[in-house]
Amino acid sequence: MTIRTLFLGACSLVALTSLAGAETLTIATVNNGDMIRMQKLTGDFTKANPDIQLEWVTMEENVLRQKVTTDIATKGGQYDVMTIGTYEVPIWAKQGWLMPLEFGADYDVDDLLPAIRDGLSADGKLFAAPFYGESSMVMYRKDLMEKAGLTMPDAPTWDFIADAAKKMTDKDAEVYGICLRGKAGWGENMAFLTAMANSFGARWFDEQWQPQFDGEAWKKTLTFYTDLMTEAGPPGASSNGFNENLALFQTGKCGMWIDATVAASFVTNPKESQVADKVGFALAPDAGLGKRGNWLWAWSLGIPAGSQKVEAAEKFIAWATSKDYLELVAAEEGWANVPPGTRASLYDNPKYQEAAPFAKMTLESIKAADPTKPTVDPVPYTGVQFVAIPEFQGIGTAVGQQFSAALAGTMSVDQALQSAQALTLREMTKAGYVK
Amino acid sequence: MQTRSDYGRHVMNSVVIAFGSTFLGLLIAIPAAWSMAFAPTKRTKDVLMWMLSTKMLPPVGVLLPIYLMFRDFGLLDTRTGLVVVMTLINLPIIVWMLYTYFKEIPGDILEAARMDGASLAKEIVYVLTPMAIPGIASTLLLNIIMAWNEAFWTLNLTAAKAAPLTAFIASYSSPEGLFWAKLSAASTLAIAPILIIGWFSQKQLVRGLTFGAVK
């Protein structure tokens, strides 16, 4: 046996030993630009932590939700890090399905935006670390607004929006004053309508969990929405979701669009949008009752309880949601591509402010949302555009179908509300909330 | 695309799951279809109907028990687990198709083989199978395509290691943002292998599907 053979053998052994010692984290994540970017940049993490390997499972939002919920509820143990939203965190934390997160001083947990941090905490403990946060705001065409002889205020009212939408509409030129979500689903039209209803003084439930669709506030909300969309919305709006409205806005067919703040980077990107240089931003409208019609969402990273790799998972989450990660993205992809909406320090950074013209409005929108007190009147639940109870996905989608039908004109506003009230009451009674 | 997903691993998983479940299914279904076609009992029709009825149950209805069983047997995110589940799902269709093809073969030929001293195994392997090759081939191809395209179980029972091409495509669909180019590229890559197999075997497939149609 030569020395060379011995040396090669020793090298192989060392390599095998190090591989055997490496821990593999399986990370379930949602397919959006920011998450894919993180996947691309993980070399930075594995270089600093050679004993940790990463396996990625990237999924469309609904598929991901179904998979991780099945896994965590049955303690399947397939994932070590899960990407979850502000809807899941309070419910799962209450069930004891998530590990509380504790980071060192250098993580600077106090730098996290309070609204986002509150949405991801239960009993004062943080159960998921925010990767990126979003709210909703008004995106509007500055040229069309000027043509209509109006100036968009930073904080418009619903009446102003309705007036502007009607004046901007030119149906012959296929320009519609306003584009809003109409496609049925708890995360589609109901995200928008629940947030809008909050600003009109409506709420899903009173403090005894009685559904409130038979109240005046909901009637006002739905009537305003359907009237506005009938007069100034695009045809077939009842099947429009985020992607459909994005395409309409980017091709110059919408005067205003109220939707996720994350859309700001798409509509101002000249490679994708025909109206990139004509877009202005404003806060979501209010009705003078002290609440705005904007939502709050954060895609966050959490560790399922019972995970065997908590330490490694915590290391990864600390890396992905740290200030250093924001610097890394800025260095590799530019400041405009940094995941927004999680850290206050990002919005103090002049380089970010310069690269992202929508930064100020995004921050203001996030600050304007309070997941712990989402409505004018008190409610027994948390969540701005959703109710953080397990039953909400089913109920929200069923109610969304009624409201989508009201928008399509196949049922009246009154019928839709009656039907929503009946089905919500039935489901809440069945689930034991209503005695 | 390769920087984001391990395409090779997804293809390999799809190949193992689709071919593995098909061959395992045929191994069970050929003797079963033989007995139903050539040695029927008065309950054969009922058994066939019962097998077909299992296809009428919405898969999500049995997701949880199967998921729990997989968890307990350590089969989550394994190719073995998926081969087993895909075999069981497609077995009724395989048995039904083979039963229909076998019924077209005259029983006298098998009887003649038996008279010449052929054992049951020899009768199936050397007499029945060669005569039913077009039927078996088309069943095989159809089943490979069904297993290749199956998205419910392959998405729900896998995570990273055993995820086939259906999971690869799902990872490119997004409700926030229009990524048509990436999604189209992923779809093309996902259907390419099965398209090539289908192209080379279309003659067999057509022959098999029309087998016995004209007497």
From TrEMBL, chain A:
Residues 1-20 form the signal peptide. Pfam families: SBP_bac_1. It is found in: Periplasm. Keywords: Periplasm, Signal. InterPro entries: Bact_solute-bd_prot1 (IPR050490), SBP (IPR006059). CDD domains: PBP2_TMBP_like. GO terms for cellular component: periplasmic space. Belongs to the bacterial solute-binding protein 1 family. This is Putative ABC transporter-binding protein.
UniProtKB/TrEMBL annotation, chain B:
The chain crosses the membrane at residues 12-35, 47-70, 82-102, 124-145, 152-173, 179-200. It is a multi-pass membrane protein. GO terms for cellular component: plasma membrane. InterPro entries: BP-dep_ABC_trans_perm, MetI-like, MetI-like_sf. It holds the Pfam family BPD_transp_1. It is found in: Cell membrane. Keywords: Cell membrane, Membrane, Transmembrane, Transmembrane helix, Transport. The keyword DNA damage does not apply. One of its GO terms (biological process) is transmembrane transport. Residues 11-201 form the ABC transmembrane type-1 domain. Belongs to the binding-protein-dependent transport system permease family. This is Trehalose transport system permease protein SugB. The lineage of its organism: Bacteria, Pseudomonadati, Pseudomonadota, Alphaproteobacteria, Hyphomicrobiales.
